Amino acid sequence: MAQQSIHRLDNESVGKAFIRYLVPSTIGMLLMAINIVADGIMVGNRLGPVALGGVGIAAPVYTLFVAMSLWIGIGGATRFSALMGAKRTTEARVVFSHAMASIFAVTLLIGLLAFPFRTELAYLLGANAETYPYVSDYLYLMLLFGFVFTMENALSIMVRNDGSPNLAMVSLITTSLLNIGLNYVFLFVLDFGVKGAAAATLLAAFVGMLVLCTHFFKKDNQLRFVRFKPNRKLLLLILVIGFPSFLAEVGMSVFTISHNNVFERLAGTEGVAAFAILNYVHSVMLLAFLGMGSAIQPLVSYYSGAKDQAKIKKTLQLAIGTAFVAGLLFFIFGQFFAATIASVFGDFPDAVMNLATSGIQLFFIAYLFMGTNFVMMTYYQSTGEIRMATWITAAREIVVLLILLSILPVFFGVTGAWLAIPLSELIVLLTIVYYQMRQKKKLQFTEDMTAQFK
């Protein structure tokens, strides 16, 4: 009776389940952040600043593939977990098969269509005569084989949702360590250049996917590839559910580009360099919060399918408490150790260090609110309140942020630019509080009306 099988989450306490997902998810995301930083350090040290700039110019292609894998992966995984919670195992397997086939087909098609036009794409992304060779080398492999890490990323999300967060973490550890090792061999030993850096990323992702495939041999595995007919409604549902995750990845690009432009205008090269330091630090903090959000997605999706509101509420309380404490610690750390954090990235001129130090102290205010916003976005996404999840994602790094970036620097200069994200996060959090209060009033009104007619 596969349809009525007992899932571990049916009997496990919410606290234990939360910790079981939180620890590996957060560790995995932090390793990913370290991996990104290590990539930049090795390319910059071996090939120089022009090559590093070339890889940076080509980065939006990598970001697009990651965004696609999150869009379909999280959309499919959320639906999969909800169906598992409702004990509709056969339908859940169709969702899994449909999602994995879709991510493979879509990303392979994008890469193959773009490959013949990679020269035009390189210049469109911002390459010039100096950086073009590096951009072209990176795009060559990424466009042809980018589907490898989109499949690996989507499968990691699915495996986590099928009750194996530790295996997902092991896969991330394997991928990160192998990527760093292969980067060293390809760049410093074999001298493969930027193509070597791209190859290292792809090969590491492939091995990580092989690690994830061991999940299919576990006795309690529910991920099964089954035959299915292409279903437009199902694909649309997956895309709608996963859209906030796609938008979040796009928002990171908007955040980086908009801040670079503002700091270039306000403080020139020193401002851009100071923001680059902050952005590296922020990527680590951001992925830590993403790890917390990723930890509750499988739980809330499953409990939502099982219609267990008590467990959903308990999970949300634990997640918000954890995110707030983490954000408070990040904030305190930034106030006392801002100069130390900035100095880790090199011996920069005093103008850059002063900007970066004050920037870290101001920007880290955002972490008091950011964690809660991430948790609530994931909660809304996992329970089907896609409009609110989309609003949170769009507002944080696009709508509200761009409005504040266009206003605050006019009155407060560089300080205003640093404060744009903290104020954006606070405003978004206030809209969440307002929305929750309205929902509570509606629920109370419905209950009162029901009681009157009984």
Descriptive labels:
membrane, mainly alpha, 454 residues
Detail the topology: elements first, then pairings:
Layout: H1 8-11, H2 14-47, H3 49-85, H4 89-114, H5 118-125, H6 132-145, H7 147-161, H8 165-189, H9 193-213, H10 232-305, H11 309-343, H12 350-363, H13 367-382, H14 386-452
Membrane topology: Multi-pass membrane protein
GO biological process, one term: response to antibiotic
Subcellular location: Cell membrane
Structural notes for this entry:
The protein has 454 residues and is mostly helical. It has helices spanning 8-11, 14-47, 49-85, 89-114, 118-125, 132-145, 147-161, 165-189, 193-213, 232-305, 309-343, 350-363, 367-382, 386-452. The chain has one domain. The protein is built from 14 helices and no strands. α2 (14-47) runs antiparallel to α3 and α10 (232-305) crosses α14. The protein is globular and about 60 Å long. The model has no long low-confidence stretch (mean pLDDT 83). Keywords: Antibiotic resistance, Cell membrane, Membrane, Transmembrane, Transmembrane helix, Transport.
Number of domains: 1
Number of helices: 14
Could you tell me the strand content as a percent range? under 5%
Please identify the structural class as seen in this structure.
mainly alpha
